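Deviations from the work plan: none for this task. Representative record:
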Amino acid sequence: MKNIYHSDIYKFEEPVNSYWEDTTKETFNLDKLTKDLKSDVVVIGAGYTGLLCAINLIENYNLDVILLEAGKVGWGASSRNGGFCSFPPIKISFKKLQKIYGKEETKKFFKNSIEGSNYTKEIISNYNINCDVTGECNYILAHHPNKFKQIKEQAETYKKEFGIDTNIYSKQEFDKIGHSGTEQFGALSYKPGFAINPLKFVNGIARYALSKKLKIFEHTLVNKIDKIDNSYDVKTKEGSVKTKKIVVATNGFYQEGLVPQMNSRILPVISNIIVTRKLTKDEIDLHNFKTFSPIANTKNLLYYYRKLPDNRILFGTRGDFIGSDQSNLNRSKIMEKFLKNIFPNWSNISIEYNWRGLIAMSQKLTPSIGKIENEEIYYGFGYHGVGVSTAPWTGKQLSKLVFSSNSKDLDVSKIYKGLPKKFIFPKLRIFYFRLAVLFYNIKDKLNI
Ligand SMILES: Cc1cc2nc3c(=O)[nH]c(=O)nc-3n(C[C@H](O)[C@H](O)[C@H](O)COP(=O)(O)OP(=O)(O)OC[C@H]3O[C@@H](n4cnc5c(N)ncnc54)[C@H](O)[C@@H]3O)c2cc1C
């Protein structure tokens, strides 16, 4: 199997040095797979997608499931994201979606996206997970006066076309309820939306899964899948599982070579986060940072940030193009400048945490859910950095598909269905992405 980025980013054995890791000491210390087993289904990857798929397969269909995870439970993006429960999971405008798929499918897509957000909330409540939920909506912030008109139109369309509860705030209004700053020119709010501690969330899901007797093996990297007659042999360094069906739930950490039909279709993109030290009340007041709801701005290469329950600021952007520990450090310094440019009164506030991870994008610019033709291999990936609401819901949809083995039974918008196209000259994927970033950087500089 091949990695796209520097090997530092695939150190499955090491927990990520995130703020979240310091907020919870819960670990499961589950066995690694060291023997040959059998099961109805093997799920690869214990993030939100894999865990929720496995739980639903056990609870609703009484299937025997084994979950194999290369690191510890939730090691991937699910334990280290920003915790924004937002939607929709796309990098394409809703106008373009309407053009490609039609108005009805786009409407259904937004309905499904909202179901995803509500499903995440249901899991928190039904599985009794204490994951520090904050905020009561999502904000999209105009980072330039030019962008206020755009978010006003967006708020109207969201309301009219998709029935989404939206509100618009002028710069002065948002100064009072949100925050001030050099790039604050009004905001749009939409619901549902909130923020969580992602590690506590994924641990809570895993705890629930274990209570339902899901067999999870940690530190068990799947390195090969062999097909023998009508079943598969899922191989790891020290063991294997013979199974009839496989779910690939590896999202941005997918390694080329595992499933030939999935190769060259995923663009893993690095996303970086920095977290400040705790701010005092007086320091918070310097930017009147009132809200605990998640905020993303209107830049093409967007900034996302939120105030954490202990009055730190979490700030995220796209990451670097290399993936080494050094490039992560360099990127975090650049991000510190971005943060301090928009909040100049915090120029003396130090940064205490920085980390990164991989999200999955594709040429479809929307998520992908489905079954590989003529195989019993299923996939759910490509949430474009919006997985807190999309990945658990995708896991649930996948469980229905796995049970029925029939793609026609997947009752979700067409927009989700099927694999994205392969990249031409896939080795150049990161280069294409660099070009796109350059283009969007210029657009952002010109505020268009
Ligand atoms: C820095 C960052 C910030 C983000 N912020 C947000 C946010 O605020 N809101 C939001 O909605 N989304 C956010 N995301 C995206 C979100 O975290 C993901 O979309 C979501 O967690 C995907 O869940 P998943 O279960 O599909 O994949 P992951 O959680 O990435 O899990 C995949 C798992 O597969 C395992 N794996 C890979 N290969 C193998 C193998 N061969 N064998 C066994 N196991 C394997 C990996 O170890 C990993 O644990 C962010 C992502 C990052 C990286």
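The radius of gyration is 21 Å.
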